[in-house]
Write a structure and sequence with these properties.
The protein has about 190 residues and is mostly beta strands. The chain is built from 2 helices and 11 strands.
Length: about 190
């Protein structure tokens, strides 16, 4: 189970239904990184909070429902994605892992702070009413290409807020049940 992910291989799967990127990442050996370590935030870097899903079993269309998508998830993590204007370039996940069965994904909310000031907020309901619907839609889209979502993949199901410029030394996302995810930028 990841504590944090940095420097991983990120594959853009295309636009999410509300805008932004749907991304998937795998956990290459040695990619784990402590959140206590600062992250390099180049000029123009933006950060968005997401729900990060770790898949327990394959998810393959056609005919995937939100309920089936939810059942394919082993754990939900708080996540922050980093972008450079051309899309997501990497992400970190928090240490708290909760089964989707024990979490109302639509009601999971987040407050985003930059330099100690709250700058935005959002909730899972902003992702097609239920973040599991985004997973289902992604599985359906991949099925057309003869692909599926694989166990062990970490999926970000779309931004919960607008992108926030990483201009301050710290950016934090405070989730209702998934804990806080602080990142120090250098």
């Amino acid at each position: 189970m990841p504590q944090a992910i940095a420097g991983l291989v990120v594959e853009r799967l295309g636009p999410d239904p509300r805008g932004g990127d749907l991304v998937v990442g795998t956990l290459p050996t040695g990619s784990e990184r402590s959140l206590a370590e600062p992250l390099a935030c180049a000029p123009g870097t933006t950060i968005t909070p997401h729900l990060g899903f770790v898949l327990a079993q394959p998810l393959e269309g056609p005919g995937v429902t939100a309920a089936a998508a939810r059942q394919s998830v082993a754990a939900v993590h708080a996540a922050l994605a980093f972008g450079d204007g051309d899309g997501v370039t990497g992400f970190v996940t928090g240490p708290v892992a909760i089964s989707p069965a024990g979490l109302d994904l639509a009601l999971e909310a987040v407050l985003v702070e930059v330099g100690g000031q709250v700058v935005d907020s959002g909730a899972g309901a902003e992702l097609l009413g239920d973040p599991a619907r985004v997973l289902a839609a992604l599985a359906e889209r991949l099925a057309v290409e003869g692909r599926r979502l694989e166990p062990g993949w970490v999926l970000l199901t779309g931004p919960l807020t607008r992108p926030v410029p990483a201009t301050a030394p710290s950016v934090s996302a405070h989730f209702t049940h998934l804990g806080s995810l602080p990142v120090r930028c250098i």
